[in-house]
Amino acid sequence: MNLRAPQLRFEASDELASLCKAGGDPLRLNILRALANDSFGVLELAQIFATGQSGISHHLKVLAQAGLVATRREGNAIFYRRALPHSELFGGKLHAALLDEVESLQLPDPVQTRIAAVHAQRAAASQDFFARMADSFQAQQDLIAGLPQYRDSLLALLDSLSFADDASALEIGPGDGAFLPELARRFQQVSALDNSPAMLDLASQRCLDEGLENVQLALADALGEDPLSADCVVLNMVLHHFAAPAEAIKQLARRVKPGGSLLITELCSHNQSWAREACGDLWLGFEQDDLARWAAAAGLNSEESLYIGLRNGFQIQVRHFQKPKAASAARSLPNTQIEQELR
Q1: Which pTM does this prediction carry?
Q2: How far is CA 257 from CA 43, 97, 240, in A?
Q3: Among 54, 159, 287, 330, which residue carries the largest CB count within 10 Å?
């Protein structure tokens, strides 16, 4: 007798049932809310929701099977983020509607407190690195992508923007101040913010050595509430040190004057986990689409992009985001992408 294995059939209703099942648990809904503007590892989520690791892993598996969360490997760790809905696909409208409703949820105060604690732990690790490694900062940066490797491309993009003669610039995390002379030559007034006293000392010394009289330095949290803003805000290899990059872009966008620009130089996503220990990186680069999505959520338009391939296998992205002159909906997709390969 010829026996056949039964054929497994997947009905369209199975996808809807999976979405409904995933959204049918209060903890899973709160996890989706917590992932609205951030990504977390399993241990971080277990800390945030005061739940055992195995329990959190089960809930994440259910959410992943329903296509509600996506994963990203950071060295040996896996981070979870919300997956974007695709309304043109079956179940996409339900996915989008579920996330829209989740946005209205208010996370319990203890959960918000523990999220802040996780962010504080990340920030403390970054600050500790810069306190310890200030003297060898440049050597550590050069292991991956030092300023000389992207300076010309960044300056070409900057010079193409044609700022007014009285325009101002703000650099976030200037490091040892190597880019400040370039900004000082191009802008009437330049400010720089850093939360590391050791790094700010290096930047101050460079300003003295080069006589940069139009540069003001301040020891401050770039995400603070002070009203400092500029026509051009610059972050060079800094975003991967922020505890919550999406939220950082949202806060920094407020420092960009209407019609102004946010320039971000960053590594593209990579899997070289040694960069955490060697360079104090909290994040191993970023996906190009993630930066565009976070910028759009912050009310910025994606403009020119440069991609620079390095001999050591890393790739740099130089991104330009612009704040509309008048209140209007930001475009969510980049206009132009210019690829460069340095061989």
Answers
A1: 0.68
A2: 39, 33, 24
A3: 330
